[in-house]
Structure formats: C-alpha cells, structure tokens
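Sample pair:
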Amino acid sequence: MGSSSIRLWPDLRSDFPGINVIQRGFGGSRLDEVVRYTSRIVLPYTPTLIVLYAGENDLVEDRTPEQVFDAYKTFVRLVRDPLPQARIAFVSIKPSPSRWELVDKMRITNEMIRDFAATHPGLSFVDVFPMMIGPNGRPRSELFVSDSLHMNHNGYAIWRGMLLPIVSSAPTH
C-alpha cells in the first residue's frame, strides 16, 4: 500500500513468490489519502500483513513530520481496530536525489515512526534509508531512474531483500 514507489514496483508479485500480493499503490498519494481509502482498498482483503510506503509526498506538499506521523498512527488504528492481528511494516521514507532538500524532515519522520513501531507489537519499521545512501552521504544515483525520484531494478532489489524476511514470515490464508 502506498505511493508510486509501490505502484511502479514492476516485479512485486514475482519478487515474493508464493505470497498473495495485492498491489495497492497510487501515484502521488499522501498518507492522509491512504487513510481515506483504507476501508475501500485495504480492509476488504483482510490482510495478515500490510507493507506501507507513504509520507514522502506529504513532506513535498509541506506537511510536517508530526502531521505525517499522526496520519501513520491513524492508519494503524484504522487497520488494527477491525483486524487486530494484522501486521504493518512501514518502509522508511527513502532518500531520493530529487528530494534531497527534504532529508531532515525525512529523517525526523522516519525516527518518529521507527520509535512508535518499536513499542507496539505487530508493527515494524523497515529502514531502507541507510542502504540507499552512498559513501558520499548522498542518495545512490544508480538506484533511480532518470527522474531521480522513482527507483529502478537496483533500488527495488534493496527493498526486496529487506522485506523478504518480513513478508516470508507472514501467515497466509
């Protein structure tokens, strides 16, 4: 679930063989929009695990890290109230070269969500950020397509590697 980074994942289903993957990303989405559509595009499937990538577009549109964090907590409540056993894995906001000016807000948002997830059973934080930073301390350009925002196969390979243990351990039904 989430923004274009989920929608554009070209091999999402084949990257997680044997898992019933439902790709529910929509381009440009903000976390508050994910919240708005949760009852329609998440809950009817009674997922056992939700992998969520959202928040980057919120920061681009001048929402604060606190507003993104509040939307995340609302999403968790909207899912966990009807589906208390559902696990939620939040993929950290990635460091995109084209949005590097937001890096401080990204780090603050990621830290708030990481700390919250660490204290709530069934929530996890998948920190892709450090793996996407090069030796120069900037985003690794070889992970992105020409727009310096969306990832290429190399970027998704990092995400797949970090998500595979979480997705593989999810109960299926």
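The radius of gyration is 15 Å.
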